[in-house]
Amino acid sequence: MNKIDVVLGLQWGDEGKGKIVDVLAERYNKVARFQGGPNAGHSLHFGGKSFVLRSIPSGIFRDGTTNIIGNGVVFDPIAFKKECDELSEAGVPIRERLVLSGKAHIILPTHRLLDAANEQAAGKGKIGSTLKGIGPCYTDKISRHGLRIGDILADGFIDKYGKLKARHYKEMDSLGFDYNADPIKPFDGSLEAEEKKFFEAIEFVKTFRTVNCEYYINEALKSDSILAEGAQGTMLDVDYGSYPFVTSSTTSCSGACAGLGVAPQKIGKVFGIFKAYCTRVGSGPFPTELFDQTGEKLRAVGHEFGAVTGRPRRCGWLDLVALKYAVIIDGVTDLIMMKSDCLDDFDTIKVCTSYKVNGVQTNELPFDISAPIEPVYTEFKGWKTDLSGIREEDKLPANFRDYIKFMEEYLEVPISIISLGPDREATIFR
Predict the structure, then answer these.
(1) Which pLDDT tens digit goes with each residue over 333-351?
(2) Catalytic residue among 14, 76, 319, 330
(3) Is 42 noted as a catalytic residue in this protein?
(4) pLDDT tens digits, residue range 57-81?
(5) 101, 112, 142, 399: which could join 186 in a potential S-S bond, CB 3.0 to 4.6 Å?
(6) Which of 5, 22, 42, 341 is catalytic?
(7) What is d(CA 236, CA 8) in angstroms, rounded to the nearest whole number?
(8) CA torsion, ordered 152, 154, 159, 160, to nearest 10 deg
């Protein structure tokens, strides 16, 4: 019996998971998404082309690889159809390589309206939602009112849809939200036009193979190798992230078990991905955030803008306190460092190695990460070398190797892969 390997983001998302899953996918027969929704954009670059995947697993470009949208995912039919159309135009045989879990919950157009209503009602306390309907869909799932992909294949779907839509109207009324008048708009055009696209997309979804994911995955483990692909990052986990500024799903390794229907003892390697610096989109605490020219430089050099939303990302130095916390939570066996090449031109590179909270120095993440935290930094001399063309470890500059060694000793986990650019080939396996 094989084990399922897991690849996760260890920060606030946007670590570069799409590229790594694409690189690793050639080793696996199957790639499965286990949580999140179309708010997560995984960017892939190869053959001079760029792609952004929102719901479809990043193994979709690999011939002979089956991709699975698991039951822990929340699924937007409109976004899915658009994504499939783009892949089909690029020559990807999408139906041959993709199956859907019947237990994945569906995002309705009114989920997106509710998202906007909740953000508007929160005022200054808003979490910075992408307005993709993710939170409201997960809310319906937990409150046992949701609709699932399996429902579209059964009788009575239209009635179930109408009842859930009516429930959403009541919720919007209670929040004082008039979707025809209020300025926050989650989509262009009218709700009626969006619903038309929704039901057209539902018919499109029906043309794909639907499976009982838990049976499908466990049977496949008897002969196949499987990679589970996470979305967002551990610091956005609903239980262990910077609550309440988190996503609505379990982004940590345990989410793979619940989101695919596999037992904990069937988890094998856990690949944890992190950037050589930190970024965050939306509201929420960020202890090492930089508000100066250094932060602006990181954003410019790293092209730090959301793959789906285009929003500029907040940037800061690497936070090893938060990173080690994520390593512990996820049981990381192998670390993967991204975007080291973005630091090539810095004279000095800083890494946060502890916090000062109320004057007390600590290596632990506090209960309230929103409280005033003073990061304590360790400084490194920059390597001032263009890393992007290096493909062999022994050609890496000494200052960079010292930087790697320090992180491995601090985190107590080896850095197995170093990414030095967006393309597949810009990767060093150690």
Answers:
(1) 999 999 999 999 999 999 9
(2) 14
(3) yes
(4) 988 988 889 999 999 999 999 999 9
(5) 112
(6) 42
(7) 12
(8) -60
